[in-house]
Write a sequence for this structure.
C-alpha cells in the first residue's frame, strides 16, 4: 500500500484499487475524479496484461505509464495544432 499525492493542496484522501493493490490517493481533485483516474489506470494495466500475460507487475506498470505519457503527448500535439489553426483564422 502506498500514498501518492496528485497535487500540493491535500484535501481529499481516498482509497482505490489498481490491479489488485490498494492505494491511498491524496489530492485536491474531487473523489470522483480520483476514482476515474484510478479506474482508467486499472483498465489500461488489465488491457496490457491481457496482451502480455508474462509481464511482471513492475514492467506492466512501466508500460502503462509509457502508454499514458504517449497518449498525453499526442493530445498535447493535437491541441497545439488546433491552437495554431485557430490563430491563423484570427489573423
Amino acid at each position: 500500500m502506498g500514498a501518492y499525492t496528485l497535487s500540493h493542496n491535500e484535501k481529499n484522501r481516498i482509497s482505490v484499487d489498481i490491479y489488485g493493490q490498494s492505494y491511498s490517493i491524496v489530492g485536491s481533485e474531487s473523489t470522483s475524479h480520483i476514482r476515474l483516474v484510478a479506474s482508467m489506470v486499472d483498465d489500461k494495466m488489465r488491457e496490457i496484461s491481457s496482451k502480455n500475460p508474462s509481464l511482471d507487475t513492475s514492467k506492466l506498470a512501466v508500460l502503462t505509464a509509457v502508454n499514458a505519457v504517449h497518449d498525453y503527448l499526442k493530445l498535447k500535439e493535437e491541441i497545439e495544432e488546433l491552437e495554431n489553426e485557430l490563430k491563423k483564422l484570427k489573423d
About this structure: The mean pLDDT is 91. Helices lie at 31-51, 57-90. The chain has two helices and three strands. The two ends are 53 Å apart (CA to CA).
